[in-house]
C-alpha cells in the first residue's frame, strides 16, 4: 500500500484521534489539527514512539486563514496532500425555542463552514496534483431529524449535500462521507441544554461504539484504489434505531 500524506481535523479527541492512530498504524504520514495543541503534541509523540509518522499544527476550522496555513504547512513539508479528513465538529443540542443562537452559529461555523474551509484549502492543491481524497465526517443526523437536534442535523445534511456536489464536480478527486451513529468521544461533554446533554449522554453510554469503529471505516475508504470512490458509509451501533 502506498504511503499517503493525510490531514485530520479534530484530531485532539474522539473519532479524529482514533483515525490518527489507525492511519499512522497503517504507515501513513498523519498531520494532526485542532485547537488543543497540548493534546495533539502528546498524540504525535506517542505515534512517533510507536514507529509512526506524525506531526501537528494548531487549527481553528472556523478561520479560513488558519485552515489555509494548516494545509500550506503540510504541502510545503511533503510536496503533496493525498487526503483531508474533515472531522472537527461540535454538537450543543437544545430545542429551537430555547433560542440558543450562539450554539446554532457555532455548529454552522464548525460543522459546515469548517468543512467548506477545508475544501477551499485543499481543492486547488488536489486539482493541480490531479488526485486527492476528501473525507467528510457527517452523522446519522445527516439522514434523519430529531427534536433538539434541528440545527445540528441541518449542518450534517448540508455536509452531505456539499459532499455530493463536490463528488459530481470532480473526476480526479475522491469524496467520501462517513456518517457515525452513537460513538464514544467527547462530543456530548460540552455545550447545549444541560438536560438534553444528560439524556444524550445516557443514550450514548448505553449504545456507543468505540471511535476506532469509525476510524476503521475511514481507513477502508482511503485504502481503496484511486478509481474506486467509496461515496457514503454509515457506521452505527447495531442497537441504534
Ligand atoms: N460521537 C458521536 O456519537 C458522533 C456521531 C455522529 C457524528 N459525529 C461527528 O464526528 C466528528 C468528531 O466528533 P467526536 O465524536 O470525535 O467528538 P469530540 O471528541 O468532541 O471531537 C471533536 C473534535 O473537533 C475539534 N474541534 C471543535 N471545534 C474546532 C475548531 N473550531 N477548530 C478545530 N477543531 C475543532 C475538537 O478539537 P479542539 O477542541 O482541540 O479544537 C475535537 O478534536 C464530529 O464532526 C461529529 O459531529 C460524532
UniProtKB/TrEMBL annotation:
Sequence similarity: Belongs to the short-chain dehydrogenases/reductases (SDR) family.
Annotated Pfam families: adh_short (PF00106)
Name of this protein: Oxidoreductase
Record domain Ketoreductase: where: 4-185
SUPFAM superfamilies attached to this UniProt entry: NAD(P)-binding Rossmann-fold domains
Record-annotated membrane-spanning stretches: none
InterPro entries, per the entry: KR_dom, NAD(P)-bd_dom_sf, Sc_DH/Rdtase_CS, SDR_fam
Domain of life: Bacteria
Entry keyword set: Oxidoreductase
An annotated Gene Ontology molecular function: oxidoreductase activity, acting on the CH-OH group of donors, NAD or NADP as acceptor
Amino acid at each position: 500500500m502506498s504511503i499517503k500524506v493525510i490531514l485530520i481535523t479534530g484530531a485532539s479527541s474522539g473519532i479524529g484521534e482514533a483515525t490518527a492512530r489507525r492511519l499512522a498504524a497503517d504507515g501513513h504520514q498523519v498531520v494532526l489539527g485542532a485547537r488543543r495543541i497540548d493534546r495533539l503534541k502528546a498524540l504525535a509523540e506517542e505515534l512517533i514512539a510507536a514507529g509512526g509518522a506524525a506531526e501537528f499544527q494548531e487549527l481553528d476550522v472556523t478561520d479560513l486563514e488558519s485552515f489555509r496555513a494548516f494545509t500550506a504547512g503540510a504541502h510545503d513539508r511533503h510536496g503533496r496532500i493525498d487526503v483531508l479528513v474533515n472531522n472537527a465538529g461540535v454538537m450543543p443540542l437544545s430545542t429551537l425555542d430555547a433560542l440558543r443562537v450562539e450554539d446554532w452559529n457555532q455548529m454552522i461555523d464548525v460543522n459546515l463552514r469548517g468543512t467548506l474551509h477545508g475544501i477551499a484549502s485543499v481543492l486547488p492543491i488536489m486539482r493541480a496534483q490531479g488526485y486527492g481524497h476528501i473525507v467528510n465526517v457527517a452523522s446519522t443526523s445527516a439522514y434523519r431529524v430529531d427534536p433538539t437536534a434541528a440545527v445540528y442535523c441541518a449542518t450534517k445534511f448540508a455536509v452531505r449535500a456539499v459532499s455530493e456536489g463536490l463528488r459530481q464536480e470532480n473526476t480526479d478527486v475522491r469524496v467520501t462521507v462517513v456518517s457515525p451513529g452513537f460513538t464514544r468521544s467527547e462530543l456530548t461533554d460540552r455545550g447545549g441544554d444541560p438536560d438534553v446533554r444528560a439524556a444524550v449522554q445516557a443514550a450514548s453510554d448505553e449504545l456507543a461504539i468505540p471511535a476506532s469503529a469509525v476510524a476503521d471505516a475511514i481507513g477502508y475508504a482511503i485504502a481503496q484504489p484511486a478509481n474506486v470512490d467509496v461515496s457514503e458509509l454509515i457506521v452505527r451501533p447495531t442497537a441504534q434505531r
